[in-house]
Design goal:
Oligomer: single chain
CATH superfamily of the domain at 5-242: ATP-grasp fold, A domain
CATH topology of the domain at 5-242: Dna Ligase, domain 1
Number of strands: 31
Strand order of the largest sheet: 12-22-21-14-15-16-17-13
Helix content: 40-55%
Number of helices: 35
Bound molecules: adenosine-5'-diphosphate, magnesium ion
CATH class of the domain at 5-242: Alpha Beta
Shape: elongated
Mean pLDDT: 92
Length: 865
Amino acid sequence: MDRFAYLLTEAQGLSREVLGGKGFGLVAMHRAGLPVPPAFILSTAACRRFLQEGEVPGLWEEVEAKVAALEGLTGKRFGQGEGGAPPLLVSVRSGAPVSMPGMMDTILNLGLSLEGVGALARATGNPRFAWDAFRRLLAMYGEVVLGERAEVFEERLSALKARRGVRTDAELSAEDLEELALGYLRHLEARGTPFPLDPWAQLRGAVEAVFRSWQNPRARTYRRIYGIPEDLGTAVVVQAMVFGNLGEDSGTGVGFTRNPATGEKGLYGEYLRNAQGEDVVAGVRTPEPLERLLDYAPGLYREIEAIAQLLERHFRDMQDFEFTVERGRLYLLQTRSGKRTAQAAVRIAVEMAEEGLITREEAVLRVEANALPGLLRPAVDRERAPKPFLQGLPASPGAAFGHAVFSNEAAERYAAQGLPAVLVRPETTPEDITGMYLAKGILTARGGLTSHAAVVARGLGVPAVVGAEALRVYPEEGRAVAEGVEIREGDLLTLDGGTGAVYLGAVPLVEAQGEALLAKLLAWAEPHRRLGVRANADTPLDASRARAFGAEGIGLCRTEHMFFAEERLPWVRRLILAATEEEEEAALSALFAFQKEDFKAILRAMDGLPVTVRLLDPPLHEFLPPWEELKAKAEAGDEEAQALLERAQALREQNPMLGFRGVRLLLLRPGILRMQLRALLEAAQELRQEGLDPRPEVMVPLVADPKEVERARALAEELFRVYGPIPFGTMIETPRAALLAGEIAPLVDFFSFGTNDLTQMAFGLSRDDAGKFLPRYVEEGLFPFDPTERLDEKGVGRLLRLAVEEGRRANPRLKVGLCGEHGGEARSVALVAPLLDYTSASPYRVLTARLAAAQAGLKEGVAAG
Ligand code: ADP
Ligand code: MG
Ligand code: MG
């Protein structure tokens, strides 16, 4: 016959999957000789069986036997309170294999009947305590098992206190609590859900309610969001009660073996005297810091401290544990790996490795690579900050403080005066780049975590809050309004890019710490990394920043940003307007001079390392002023505006993303391609003459057919014959290019997967518009995650694998990289690490990419060498 119930002593060697996290921790603590109240565990298999068949054969016989065992271990008696033994009360606790809020709450003090209350009063000599235990049981059971609202019990308690003219529960007498409890009983009866006075019926009701809570909507939603399998089931812990509310020498508390905010080694926690577990959570009374125990119970403090050390040695990780003290005796009720901030995670991992508690490899694997960028910037001190006045999405971590500005021009004015600014926009477009660059922070009213503002802010390493829906921005009027507050240019704002909170004025910040620790962790990680890590960088500043973070070159240098700068736009516009070859030639040669200088500066910053330049990608009309502005100027008689308006009309597209851009534009306006490539080749030539070692590479965007590559390559070869060849590659960012990779590969030296466009085209969605439905899609479980943020393994990943395989087969010397936003996202990097030669990430994400690639290497068994 199957077995479903295990005493702590019988459960040794069983897994977390069988015992649930809570049961597993209790068994381990018991085994380590720590004081744990006697308990038995019903396995997750019992839950699965119950949910499938509505009952579990043999379960109740087993439970009866285990309760008898608890009676033996405690010398107390479960049931109707006959005999002289004090009543055995138990807690019924849920515990899934993975930590999962949303499951059933714990029920305490279970096993009391009316006779039992009397027996408990006699056994403890404390009738008030006995009635208090009973009224707590009724309220908890009434809520959790019988489905009454918690407020109903709260209201009755408050009403009683008001009638007695007292403020706290502690001032109520035994008689008061008896009256309250009897009132609860009558209420539940009248409601048609009578409380079972038979303790065995209570136990059965509670256990089955825990089983059923696996299926409640909160728990289901949580599992869907975090990808937890539906068929795990929950275990149930039935444990003898110990009482923290038996007087001043009793109490209950929570401890951490290291500080979960900073990672600092040493006991940290809170304690509440004369209280039962749920009082801490209910927040009725404020707990005191654990160190206070040193004043009045130093022996107890030392005991907890020793236990904390033992727990860490046993579990080899920072532990978060719960305990209760009954009349001076300490009992442990729970332990688990503690949640921690990114900063604490790094410190704990490095220090534990240095203490010899874990290996360096384990330390490397324990830190969440996606959290690294936030470590290097100051953050809002959340404990001392006031309530935020506005909430948006946390797009780029770190705190920013500055004067509100609404335009590039204002950002420049503040920068010129050396004043920090926060750029506030309805949303951002490529035209806002100057302001975004100069600002200390970026705030937008619209757009999601992959909006232009978010992507660019992360690239620049500027803290940002986006999609603050309550915000209305009027850039022309130089003001914004939110929650009834008007913000004008110059007003001070603080953003928390890690939480999405926006504050008026200045709030306390904490400086970035732990750079040295992070450097150490990365030094341990690096030898296991096989995947190359480059950066997406468009400026010399970005390039040197990325290099400082350890980038091994540039995987994507976008050239269009260079066209936006103030003194160049007029030439770009002349290029667009050119009616004759001479006019085009004049515009191109002006732009040539600018581009050559840009390329020289970037190649200089990346001297000795590869720099992959992507030729012009966006459609030309992006370089024209906004439609409305042109129209107004044209109507006012401006002739240039009139001409531009006509061109804009001609260039206008329904669907620019799928329009006249990338290689299509470069092939039909080859002058642009020649100008850009010649600028790059001459830049390199001049640097070589200076004795430097420039390593330019060039690639064409948006290819869909081998013919396009062939034609572009032929154009490039004309220049290679003059200047000497450089690596020539293509982006793979249309599904068709991925499918025809075998035909394209022989024509190029490298592929670079543009996973932003590849994702958009594979899914048929645009990042700019997806904000309207993607978040809901994820919430509803239609997509497991947002594919614009994290690489979709099944679809986009399949295209990628196919292109790599067929590409390499057709051209064994082909190099393969990735340069989308995914290139700096840890799970995506892990996915492509075994497939590609390099990934390319925005400068601040280079650290994430390095760590994630090393973690992937460790898992693949790349040995340090
Ligand atoms: P959660 O999953 O919410 O942490 P627990 O099952 O740990 O719920 O129970 C919450 C609290 O109830 C515990 O921290 C402890 O204070 C109290 N508690 C649970 N079981 C017992 C027990 N056997 N004796 C005394 N207190 C208990
Ligand atoms: Mg707990
Ligand atoms: Mg693209």
